[in-house]
Amino acid sequence: MAFGSGLDDNEEAMSEINMTPLVDVMLVLLIIFIITVPVLTHSVKVDLPQASNTPNELKPKTVAISVTADGNLHWNDDTVSFEVLEQRLQVAAGAPEQPEIHLRGDKQVAYEHMIRVMAAVQRAGIEKLGFVTTPE
Q1: Distance (Å, whole) CA 127 – CA 9
Q2: Which entry of 14, 18, 52, 135 is 20 to 30 Å from 58 by CA?
């Protein structure tokens, strides 16, 4: 059963692939792509302004309050009394952008001193309080 012109007297099946339909399909696809690619890339030429894409990272201000073993208080590097600490906390709480308070306590400090500082931070209305420790 050969599909052909009938000139061959062979009764064997045709073993060759007919390439004509494949070539026709490929030519149609090629023409479609040639026509559509310029349409897809067509755009209006506009001179766009340049801008940097780096985000503006505002690092929050931090205040380190340290409590030594004997109960002395330090605001960053300054030694302060408890009353001065409360005043500075009130000023920091009233700032447009409140600083983060990093509370550092000595290993031997009495629990009472740490609680007094934490209560002063809370009374001042500061929202961010963190404890600083060293990893083991």
Answers
A1: 98
A2: 135
Q: Which residue has the tokens 């208080």?
A: 73
CA 44 to chain centre: 34
Question: What is the DSSP secondary structure assignment for residue 129, as one 8-state letter?
Answer: E
Query: Which residue stretches of the chain are H helix?
Result: 20-41, 82-93, 111-124
The C-alpha R_g of the chain, in whole angstroms, comes to 40
The 10s digit of each residue's pLDDT in 39-93 is 776 677 878 788 777 777 767 788 999 999 998 999 988 999 999 999 999 999 9
Q: What is the DSSP letter of 50?
A: P
Distance of CA 91 to the CA centre of its chain: 32
* pLDDT value for 91: 92
Residue 83 corresponds to which tokens in the numbers above? 């009353």
